[in-house]
Design brief:
Helix content: 55-70%
Number of helices: 39
Bound molecules: adenosine-5'-diphosphate, magnesium ion
Strand content: under 5%
Shape: globular
Strand order of the largest sheet: 2-3-4-1-5
Radius of gyration: 28 Å
Distance between the termini: 40 Å
Number of strands: 8
Amino acid sequence: MVATQAVTQQGQLPVETNEFVGREAELRQIDQLLPGARLVTLVGPGGVGKTRVTLRAAAAAAPRYPDGACLVELSALRDPQLLPHTIARQLKLAEQAQGAQLDALLAHLGKRRLLLVLDTSEHLIDACAELAEAILLAAPHVTVLATSREPLGVTGETTVTIPPLPVGAAVELFARRAAAATGGFAVTDANSGDLIRLCRRLDGIPLTIELAAGRLREFPLAELNRRLDHRLTLLTGGSDRDGGRHATARNAVSWSYDTCTATEQALWARLSVFPGGFDLDGAQEVCASRELGRAEIAETVIRLVDKSVLIPADPAAGGGDEPPRFRMLDTIREYGGERLAAAGGTDTVRDQFIARYLAITRHFDEHLFGDEQLALFRQLRREHANLRAALEYALTSEPGQQEPRQLARQRDGAELATRLYGYWLSAGLMSEGLYWLGRVLDRFTEPSAQRAQALLISCLLGAVGGDATQAAVVGAEGVSLAARLKERQAEARGWAFLCLAHTFSGNPAEGVAAGKKAHRLLTALGDTVGLIILAAHQCYAYQGLGDLDQAIACYQRGLALFEASAERWYHGYLHVIVSLAYFMDPGKDDECAHVLKLALLAKYELEEVLGTAYSLEILGWLAARAGRPERAAWLMGSAEPLWSRLGARLGNSPVFEQLHERAESAARSALGDERFDALVSAGARHPLEQVVALAMNDAGSLDDRAPAAAHPGAGTLTDREQEIAYLAAAGLSTEQIARHLFMSEPAVAEHLSCVFGKLGASSADQLGAWLGTAAGPAAPCRGEMRLPNDREHAFTQRARIT
Ligand SMILES: Nc1ncnc2c1ncn2[C@@H]1O[C@H](COP(=O)(O)OP(=O)(O)O)[C@@H](O)[C@H]1O
Ligand SMILES: [Mg+2]
């Protein structure tokens, strides 16, 4: 299942979406090289097929690496500074609490046996070379497989040149693509001469062959040949072979462009601003102009797909029911970018691009704590590369710019970077967030609302995922600037962030004081979201002081503030934090188990490794304390692979480590070493979605009540019914569900009886039987769940409760 793969495997290779031809010799060569080599670079001109060969080679070699193969696609990345972040994200690494992203990445790779694929390195060649060198030194069991138009130039690099396809394979590729495009094409005696001539003319470069095949609907083969012949002789005659191949690919692209209609050309050029693919809506919003209406864009996109200028984006990446997305191969996007620049359109289209992502970001920020939350998180994850590009376009101009367009862009950039705080946190991208905020601060050096906001969000991200002491300093500057500028909401939330920064830098008393100030200001403003955030931070601060009653009171106050029942992020956050207070408070084990189950549901659904790990781990401690050593062992075991992805168990907190050891030694002495170790590794290997279901069901053993296949009736439940069914299966009473969902008890009971009726179940226990595998839009543990740990708040990682 996808979920388990994502936990055990470090990144996945995309599925091939059309047929692959030839390349036996190259694949054999790479296969022979890989076991011995540390860095292999596939070199060749754009469009020759480096990416395709690499993916094949990586898929073939992956089983030889215990940690598998991880593909990092770099063509959408523009800023070399974000190279380590991009790789860490792909490796599903959670960000480290301290230290630079590069150090964390190297430390992680040092412990891995992995094939790391860096696809499309040429535009970041220096950064890739430096990084590859560092990896070779720091990670003895990692092999890097890179593609680039030129070698990286690193000692120890082996290069493999990817030549054009020999004519036989080229003809085969043309015939297959032509058949797909026209619905019927076969090589015959009559057309083989023309075909061979065409493929030779195209120099065997797959990209150009695909582009030409896409035109067969408009031009018969002989005509296509004649047109290309004319064009390419004109353009490439007489150049040397290799330069000639670069030129052929380019010229075939430019020929393809020239034979497009003016509308197609305009759209091709405009769409080049999307490095991360787009859906129709995005294309329409960003590319529309007076000459190019939305309806025309919709039709033109389809025509560009027919012409192989646009290709469907990896369907697995979006998953679910999102609208289809498209992308361009780099060579094609590059060409479009040049045409756009030549027509003087870059600035306008980039402005529209920034405007689109600003609108998405505003909507995200304004609805983050509502029922749409999960959909919004997913949308931003899909748009990650484009969000980055929007920030980049907005924040490229030099600091000190006075030109109005640049000033407006810088303001947009500041708004993007700060309003995305919920994304940076929930996706575990604290250090990337801090990077963009740093660029904002470089451009807003004078007192301004933008500077105050950027300082304050830096404080929040730094407290959670960086240096908390430094965060407290930055936060203090931000708060006093906001106060001076009378930015009331910024100031009030700033104190809430400071509450966390102080607590995490070892001053919970100061944290509590900041929290009180925040509470007063936020209440006066009626800022509910600010108060929810504050409640979580105060819950920590009071635990830091050892005042568990106050901590629990803050938690309850936080919960009571929610209006949206489908909110997961902060619900889960609050449940995890308070579980620690309940665990430390004697006699509160039932409450502790209850909030942990709620946390587990929320965090698992959000695909957050950290919260999932804490929930499973602490449920294990509870089991040990309750004299259920088997359950304790497999639960703690199931958290192990998650901890290892996070870099450290329990954030290396000595206090938590002691609790872990206490639980472990209780279970160990009850079971004996051999049985305990066996259960721990069984827990680690067991599919995570089943472990989650078993944990929720209070199962004693891993094979206790293996969740059955999805009940056929499960799909017929409404969203609300599913949600209630899950909570009931998790052991919540009708009254508790009513409280959790802000519904009346009779309404919950009515929904439950519908659920029982549809599923033919008579008890919550039976509901639990399909808990792990049921599918449906609102089901917290549904099938396509992946669990990458790059989306973490590292809050608990930083918990320094003393
Ligand atoms: N061996 C092959 N079989 C089928 N299609 C191929 C093959 N090699 C390349 N292609 C197709 O040709 C286009 C360009 O290939 P790509 O691997 O992206 O080139 P590069 O990475 O060198 O720029 C892509 O659409 C790709 O799917
Ligand atoms: Mg490529």
